[in-house]
Design goal:
The protein is mostly helical. Helices cover 54% and strands 0% of the residues. It is globular, with a radius of gyration of 13 Å.
Length: 112
Amino acid sequence: MATPTPLGLRLKQARLMTYPANGEAEPKAGWQELSQRELGLLAGMSDGLVGHIERGTTRGVSLPTATKYARVLGINLDWLSTGEGAVHPGSDGLDAELVNAAVRAAREAEAA
């Protein structure tokens, strides 16, 4: 059985957390947890890849792939890659309304 990598654990943590905006202590209204499938769809990657990264069953993650995930999740690429620095860099990620619309569309497509 593979051991999750630190990057995989941070990716899962970011995917499952309710996102505080710009370092605020309170969660931003409207944010929600993302499934592996939803993160994959939003990043233009497969949900299988998300799962492999989170479980540590992939050899590594390319910089372009990590960048896509960081942008979709609105997190700092340095934090995702190394664990250093703030989790949220400010407002570099997609806004909550856009992400929520994409999540709803993904869930509706999955239900159909």
